[in-house]
Amino acid sequence: MEDKSVDDGYYIRKCVELARTAIGCTSPNPMVGCIIVKDGKIVGKGFHPKAGQPHAEVFALRDAGDQAENATAYVSLEPCNHYGRTPPCSEALIKAKVKRVVVGMVDPNPIVASKGVERLREAGIDVTVGVEEELCKRLIEAFAHQMLTGKPFVTLRYSLSVNGRILDQLGKGVAEKGGYYSKLLQEYDAIIVSGSLTEKFISQEPGANQPLQIVIAGNPHQLPAVTEEAFKMIVFADKEIATESDLAQKGIEAVVSDQINLTSILEYCKRQGFCSVLLDMRGSFGDLEGLLREAIEQKVLQKIVMEVLPFWDESSGGESLVALNSLVKRLEVKNLRSRSSNESIVLE
Ligand code: AOF
Ligand code: ZN
Question: For residues 31 and 48, what is the distance between their CA atoms, to the nearest angstrom?
Fold first, then answer.
């Protein structure tokens, strides 16, 4: 007897993989992948590349052409049933006469929320919902959080040496360009850092997402060099350092205030329509300690990504994990997963 659940899971996992082609590029929309299967063969594939462009289903149906008739469409997210920037995918699937639709998860967007599934069923299509649901939820965790709370999804990140020191990605040069760290940065709409990152870590490949760097400057040394202005950047600076017009003259966009705080930074992110923000504790932990404290007090952290690098840090500087843990221990951390890459072990 055919084991349907094994097949369905396989194709939804493929959809998730396909969706991730557009990592960091779809915000404020979710990443979505769609695969059309007929007689056990993939006849069409599509993913959502960018907000404003067609949805995954539209690309997959185009790719499948006439072969979509009587086929099964696999989608990591419920097909939409509304006119947004693009027309409803439910109607496109009905028009293409697909026989069955397998959906990874229901769309958390209240405008959709099961209406796409209902519309397909009304049209006589056999719909299965909730296949590889956890995987699909993780794929769009930032989108879902933003949709349901109106606030950006905030992740805390740090990397550790084997002897428990928080590593400075720039100074030690242990993480390589194109490695895990660079890829992680690409996933976010914005990253909060003390001191700007360099081309070493920000991808400049065509089509890759370049997150906005929110540079925290509490003292003049933390002001970014103007040569780095090719990267998208905004500086949140202490008023003791400079005025906004001083910085503007140097070509640096800045928000200058009495006290740099996370609330105003996140408000700024919200106004920009950002779904995801990374609080990146590179090296000088002290520079961002105040923001981290605020993040913990206000319970805005949704996720922690900790990377352990195969590196013994002999330097006298640098912060120990103990200092960070004294703050982080106040968090309720659950659902940790680990995975290893060539260069490190990642816990998230
Ligand atoms: C789908 N397939 O590939 C995506 C969906 O403004 P629009 O038309 O792009 O609609 C955006 C909403 O559509 C978005 O908030 C989410 O609910 C859904 N995204 N739906 O059927 C897709 N990206
Ligand atoms: Zn759609």
Answer: 6
Q: How far apart are CA 234 and CA 114, in angstroms?
A: 39
The answer, yes or no, to whether any atom of ligand 1 lies below 6 A from the CB of 303, is no
Q: What is the dihedral of CA 176, 181, 183, 185, to 10 degrees?
A: -130
Quick: pLDDT tens for 219-263. Answer: 777 777 766 556 788 999 888 888 888 888 888 888 898 888 999
Q: List, for residues 270-324, the tens digit of each pLDDT value.
A: 999 999 999 998 756 677 888 988 998 898 999 998 888 887 887 766 667 777 7
Give the dihedral sign, CA 118/120/123/128: negative
Pocket test for ligand 1, best of 15, 29, 47, 101 (most atoms within 8 A of CB): 29
Helices within the chain (DSSP H only): 4-19, 56-64, 89-95, 115-122, 133-139, 141-149, 169-172, 180-186, 244-249, 262-271, 285-297, 321-328
Instruction: State whether the beta carbon of 53 lies less than 6 angstroms from ligand 1.
Output: no
176 is catalytic: no
pTM for the model = 0.90
Burial 87-103 (b: 16+ CB within 10 A, else e): ebbbbbbbebebebbbb
